[in-house]
């Protein structure tokens, strides 16, 4: 049964409903019984649901705090614009510094959808960069290509490597400078030979990425600021 506030009035001759702030108010004359009101509401159920749904969408859109904000891609600021359109998609014209995220107004949870579109964009950019650099460094290091490369959101690791030669990279790296991403790539590729952090492992990292201390410091100092959060 629908939850509603009932307001009785002596002067009123008919029953009326109002849907505001996603709440239902029923105005009724004194002579109409509660059973009659409930029956009448039941006949209006579809209309009420449609109104509630519409207001939920408007509320979600309003809750979205900013019309534009900026994120970092490879340490460069990119303005993000949010828009309602017929199709849900991200667009970045000619590598411009503006990213347009469009979602359909029929999408119920708008903020989550913007967040997931933004992640799709960063995922695609980071993935193509990493694939290119893994190829470069595998040649340099005389290493066979990894069996698989995945990108995921991690809280406290930048990458990983396992015995099946699968590499994983943290999606948050998309906001780091490319020289830092290169370090993480060399680090994980060096694990293909040494699955530990022994002196030999670090020697191999240093052979192909001499500034590894600088890059690792950069991650320690800036790592937390790489997270993009919608608040
Ligand atoms: Zn490691």
Task: Walk me through what this model shows.
- The strands form three sheets. The protein has a four-stranded mixed β-sheet, with helices on one face. The chain has a three-stranded mixed β-sheet with strand order 1-3-2.
- A hairpin with a 4-residue loop joins β9 (about 160) and β10 (about 165-170).
- It contains six helices and ten strands; from the N terminus they run βββααββββαβββααα.
- With about 230 residues, it is an alpha/beta fold.
- The chain is elongated and about 90 Å long.
- It folds into two domains: about 5-65, no CATH class; about 70-225, Metalloproteases ("zincins"), catalytic domain (Zincin-like, 2-Layer Sandwich), CATH 3.30.2010.10.
- It has helices at about 35-45, 45-65, 110-140, 180-190, 200-210, 210-220, and strands spanning about 5-10, 15-20, 25-30, 70-75, 75-85, 90, 100-105, 150, 160, 165-170.
- It starts with a strand and ends in a 9-residue tail after the last helix.
- The longest helix is centred in the middle third of the chain and has 32 residues, at about 110-140.
- The site of zinc ion has 3 residues, from loops.
């Amino acid at each position: 049964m629908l939850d509603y506030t009932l307001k009785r009035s002596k002067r009123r001759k008919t029953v009326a409903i109002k849907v505001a702030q996603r709440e239902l108010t029923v105005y009724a004359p004194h002579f109409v019984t509660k059973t009659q009101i409930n029956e009448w509401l039941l006949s209006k159920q579809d209309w009420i649901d449609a109104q509630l749904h519409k207001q939920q969408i408007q509320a979600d859109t309003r809750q979205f705090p900013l019309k534009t904000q900026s994120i970092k891609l490879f340490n460069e600021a990119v303005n993000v614009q949010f828009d309602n359109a017929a199709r849900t998609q991200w667009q970045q014209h000619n590598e411009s510094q503006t990213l347009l995220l469009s979602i359909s107004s029929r999408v119920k949870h708008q903020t989550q959808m913007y967040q997931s579109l933004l992640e799709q964009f960063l995922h695609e950019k980071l993935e193509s960069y990493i694939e290119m650099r893994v190829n470069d460094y595998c040649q340099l290091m005389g290493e066979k290509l990894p069996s698989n490369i995945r990108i995921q959101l991690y809280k406290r690791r930048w990458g990983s490597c396992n015995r099946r030669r699968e590499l994983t990279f943290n999606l948050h790296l998309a906001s780091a400078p490319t020289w830092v991403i290169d370090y993480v790539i060399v680090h994980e590729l060096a694990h293909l030979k040494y699955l530990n952090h022994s002196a030999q492992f670090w020697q191999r990292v240093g052979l192909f990425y001499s500034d590894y201390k600088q890059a690792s410091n950069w991650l320690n100092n800036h790592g937390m600021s790489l997270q993009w959060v919608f608040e």
